[in-house]
Fold this protein.
Amino acid sequence: MKQVVVISGKGGTGKTSITAALAGVGPQKVIADCDVDAADLHLILDPKVKLREDFYSGQTATINTEHCIECGQCAEQCRFNAISVSFEIVKEKCEGCGLCEFICPTQAVSMTDRKCGHRFVSNTRFGTMVHAALGIGEENSGKLVTAVRKTARELAEAEKAKLVLVDGSPGIGCPVIASLTDIDFCILVAEPTVSAVHDLKRVHELARHFEVPCTAILNKCGINESLENEIRKYCRENEILILGEFPYDTTFSQAQIHGKTVAEFAPDTFGPTVRNIWSRMAKTLELPD
């Protein structure tokens, strides 16, 4: 079994659209949406949820009003201003440090596990999908990504799937690091814009740090030829195989509106491109074509 992650240095490059298109070709696979801060792969794959679990990470404080004598010590010492004038916890500000519990003279404060989001296992027309949603303003997305990937790997082993296809997060932060850990192969999606070229180089450095083999897909070709050439030059110099290229085309948006991959929506136009990309990727990974 191989694990492949599709990432990009910035959002909006078309990473999720390309992941969805690749999900529709090749052998049996398990799909994992690890962009938990702003998950949107479900908009294309229309998953039917069969398992939903709460995700807990970190702690938050709770004040028992029956035991609280309103001495004010907790509010005075809290560096995050997470305790209101009426001695209630402002959840959005609480960092779960536990100081208020430690200094409370009446033991009115207790720390409880914090529910940060939900994790799902679903059926899609392309196979099993593991995905998640982080709560508004919640943190620890890296831990949630790790939980999603762990579940996806276990399901792939149980189903004897040949591949786990991961839609990673944009950027180079904690969720991207969690997406790259213990991965076999990485696909970098780039677009020819100034910020995207800059961030492509950053995310490639991150992948190289973890010694993950990288390939690339160039998306939205035709909007800036000089930047396209800069990306191609960077890939040549760093021995990054370009699996394929997509033109800038509103078909991608139309496909999303209709809840389809670009290969499903325009099989004659984009179907061959997607299949060629898959064939090159399968050859590199020694997977069935």
Observations:
- The longest strand covers residues 48-63.
- DSSP finds eleven helices and nine strands in the chain.
- The domain at 2-46+125-285 is CATH 3.40.50.300 (Rossmann fold).
